Amino acid sequence: MTLIEVVVAVSLMLIIFLGFFGAYVASADLVRSTSARSGALFLMANRMEYIRGLAYGSIGTVGGTPSGSLVASEPRILNGITYTIRTTVAYIDDGANGAGAGDYKTVKVEADWNFRNVSQSISTVTYVAP
């Protein structure tokens, strides 16, 4: 009778500890994923602030339309994670004013990274007027 009680007790404890271990692994994974996303947000915000500090005429990508001083794509490493930061600049024509093309520019900054062999991406957009 005692041996059966010990086997049942050990089995119950094993099931409980496996549940705790699974919850620990899932929460650690969530923390790493959130940290990677926060790093991407930091890099994008840093890039946007840099762009907002530029003169209107120099906001554009090297070799792009509009032409400017920004690099279209660059790799960045933060906390051991490799991000690809892409910047896209385009002219926007506001048809309401009838002034023609290039009334203002739209700037899109994207961050791509891999987490557990799954590609993740996030982007932000701002508008820049002369």
Task: Output the keywords.
130 residues, alpha+beta, four-stranded antiparallel beta sheet, 1 helix, 39% helix
Q: Could you walk me through the main structural features you see in this protein, from its secondary elements to its overall organization?
A:
- The protein has one helix and four strands.
- Strand 3 (104-115) and strand 4 form a beta hairpin.
- Strands 1-2-3-4 form a four-stranded antiparallel beta sheet, covered by helices on one side.
- The protein is α+β, with helices and mostly antiparallel strands and 130 residues long.
- It is rod-shaped.
The radius of gyration over CA amounts to 25 Å
Q: Count all strands and give the number.
A: 4
SSE run: HEEEE
Structural class by sheet pairing and helices: alpha+beta
Categorize the overall geometry.
rod-shaped
Number of helices: 1
Query: How far apart are the termini?
Result: 86 Å
Indicate the percent of residues in helices.
25-40%
Order of strands in the sheet with most strands? 1-2-3-4
Q: Report the β-strand fraction as a percent range.
A: 25-35%
Low-confidence stretches: none
What's the mean pLDDT score? Answer: 91
Main sheet summary: 4 strands, antiparallel
Task: Walk me through the topology.
Elements (H helix, E strand, L loop, with lengths): L1 H51 L20 E6 L2 E12 L11 E12 L2 E11 L2
Antiparallel strand pairs: 1-2, 2-3, 3-4
In short:
This protein has one helix at 2-52; strands spanning 73-78, 81-92, 104-115, 118-128.
